[in-house]
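Consider one such protein record:
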Amino acid sequence: MSADEKAKAKTEQAKGAAKEAAGRATGNDRLTAEGRTDRMKGDARQAKEKAKDVGKH
């Protein structure tokens, strides 16, 4: 996994988790859903990069 893509994935996951937690704490369903979406995007990016790494070996 390239370092840049790995960093993007981790940032997206962290941002999503923070949004999701803030949404839950405030009872804001829209913010919770946005956070969940951001986190899943980060998870997908990370999985894609891991698959690329496996293909290289």
